[in-house]
Amino acid sequence: MSETKYDVVLVALRNRVEIMKAIMAVNPVGLKRSKDMADNPPAVVISGVSRDKAEKAKDILEKAGGTIVIREIQT
Fold it and tell me: Fewest C-beta atoms under 10 Å: which of 27, 39, 43, 60?
């Protein structure tokens, strides 16, 4: 049986700089990659994580001003 994993998707944002910081906090990407994600929503911020990790990332990104969707994927 497949284990359910999740993608965390940034669909909109209010503050690009704060979102870039939050992206780097939840995913070990550099400044350029976090800027690319912030500039081009929808963007998958993290992929294939547990529900718990997805919820924690969503909370951090929403506090930074992002609109976030958690999308279920099958692995």
Answer: 39
pTM for this entry: 0.91
Rg of the Cα atoms in the chain: 12
* Residue whose C-alpha is closest to residue 69's, from 4, 5, 11, 26: 11
Contact 58, 11 (CB under 8 A): no
In the chain, where are the structural domains located? 4-74
CATH assignment, 4-74: 3.30.1390.10
Which pLDDT tens digits describe the chain residue by residue (75 residues)?
A: 568 999 999 999 999 999 999 999 999 999 999 999 999 999 999 999 999 999 999 999 999 999 999 999 976
